[in-house]
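Can anyone check this?
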Amino acid sequence: MKHTIATIIILFGSFWGFSQEVNLEPNWKKGAKKSILIKSETKKSRKEGKWEIESNEFNANLLVKEVNKDHYIIKITYKDFFLNTFKHAMDKIGNSPTVQKKLNLFFKVSKNGKEFELINWEDAKAVMNTTFNDLKNALNKKSNNDTLFTQLINPFSALFTKSTVQSMFSNEMEALLIPYNTSWSKDTVKQTRSELNPFGKGKKDSLTVHTNSWIKDQNGTILNLGSEQIFDTEKFEEMMKTMMKTMFNGFMKMAPDTTSSKFTEKKKELDLLLDNMSFNIERNYSISYDQKKGFVKKFRNDRKMNGSLMGRPIKTISWSEVSFD
């Protein structure tokens, strides 16, 4: 089964006299500063056609610390920072996530802008651990310190790997680096194919991405680009099913009687729900890019997702917007 994700990247302006193909690269100067505004909204469909809406907004500052032969070092400073990943769960139980007054993160970015690495990822992990422990303690109180509950939730802290921590800042880094990850053409559509894993490098690739890219126009130094992506998610769905079956089978082994007919029927029911898992995703990007300064001015990512998970329909509409001023 193939799902098609049409991704339209729009940057504002008009095109005149551009070369056939362009490979964009950062043109950052040491000491360059940018104010970052990060906004997002997620709408999830609930029962009776109602929508649950979650909105967030963060401010940050970017500084180009170093310009080296083969890479840049940039510092992003977040103010009053908390992790959206845990905020929803904390809200549900009437608690608030721990707010970090200031978080300095250092990223190593390749000179061509195609790759980045979070250098001090353990500092970000410490923030994740603090928030996770706050959530765990609050849930323990709700469950009257049930030891079985603690056994079930503790393993999730092992998921805080370098790639997971780095993915927490994917919106900002995707916004900053997306123009550099393909070449652009005015008169022809450039076609590329790539393999990736949504859980980060070092894992088995589960998504095949076919990308069509082109230049739409230019107004001075502001470029207008377009891109269409086709995602084959079949391998990803199979990977998710296998992973969740393994996890749930581990939990079910804790049951007092794993040989009863009731247990067997429940396991069959669970396996059927997992086998029917499916995902359909659409994304639309809009980016304003200043070629002279080598910086994205504004990035917007609109996403729609629907499908089925554990027998429940999924319908989510979300957007994120990152501006660099």
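Reply from J.R.: I decoded it. DSSP finds seven helices and 14 strands in the chain.
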